[in-house]
Amino acid sequence: MNRIDRRTYLALVGGATVAMAGCSGEDDEPSMDERDADESATAADDATLSDDPDPGTDSVSERAESDDQTDEAELGELLEVDPLSAVVSTLEVVEDAVIEPDDEVLGAEDGRAFAVVDVAFQHADDGVEPVIDVDETVAVELGNEDGKTYDRVDELEITALDPTASRLAPGEVVRGDLIYDVADDAEGLVLELEPEASGDSVVVDLGAESDDERVETLEQEVAEVETFSQGVDHGGIDVAVGSLEHGNNLGGFMQSDEGYEIVAVGVTVHNGSGRDRALTPEQTQLKDDTGRIYAETSGTMRTLGGLEDVTVSDGESYEGTVAYQIAEGTDDLYWIFDFTEWGETQRVFWQLR
């Protein structure tokens, strides 16, 4: 369903006002020439009003001047924001945000709250780039019906799990929470998804109660998934998952919180690319079958020798372990290594269980 934006609405109201002002009395019947002149003047006034910018809604105004439209949607609907599919599942407004993997609590200031929006994206078009950046493909903004917008919370632990900060291979799904700083009495919240290129935008009404039975689910459909212990070579760099441990207490610092377990992934990287290569945490992810991201556990990373701030010289190999804390009972785990930062547009998936 197409939405009339605020500026278009004002133009329509303004046009009606001009037309009414031209009526001097019920008995004065204007001539045909007078009516034609009035209609031309009204059309000119409408055009002038529609060219006036609407303060605080520049993005909406710019879209109104293009051929693109803005569609309305509800929670749980399958959305198409080419080349992405998306589902906005739930909204929670809370005073405290719990940050995984260590369950840190971030408290809102007086009079403020956190709007937590559960959203998922899928790279739905294999005819474009083999790997795309979500935040370079779609702009996501929280606002209200009056055009006010809200800032995203930028705590480091939260941004690490931000689904819009992910890259996606064709068929890949990412899911996570977007957390915004809002007034504790905020009402009429909407989430706008606007393509960075051409295409229709979508505004999701977050105020309606979602029906779990009606919430669409994006299913991951990547072309190839490696099995445990398989190595993959791209551009002379070979990456393999060589070991896997999981449990509540794996010894040393590897002890999980109650209701959680530790998953420790042993990785070997051999560099035969002809140049030194720097490893970064952004190149790796652990996901479940819904696409939800799990962060590395901060307490074990340095002890185990992870993949942070490591340079592998040409012709050498490096072995490290990356540990994650996940909820007990989580099925179908996938570990992902991204070669894109090294000029190879490939994301490789290993199914861990």
TrEMBL record:
<feature type="region of interest" description="Disordered">
    <location>
        <begin position="21"/>
        <end position="73"/>
    </location>
</feature>
<dbReference type="InterPro" id="IPR029051">
    <property type="entry name" value="DUF4352"/>
</dbReference>
<dbReference type="InterPro" id="IPR029050">
    <property type="entry name" value="Immunoprotect_excell_Ig-like"/>
</dbReference>
<protein>
    <recommendedName>
        <fullName>DUF4352 domain-containing protein</fullName>
    </recommendedName>
</protein>
<dbReference type="Pfam" id="PF11611">
    <property type="entry name" value="DUF4352"/>
</dbReference>
<feature type="domain" description="DUF4352">
    <location>
        <begin position="238"/>
        <end position="338"/>
    </location>
</feature>
<feature type="compositionally biased region" description="Acidic residues">
    <location>
        <begin position="25"/>
        <end position="39"/>
    </location>
</feature>
<keyword id="KW-0732">Signal</keyword>
<feature type="domain" description="DUF4352">
    <location>
        <begin position="85"/>
        <end position="199"/>
    </location>
</feature>
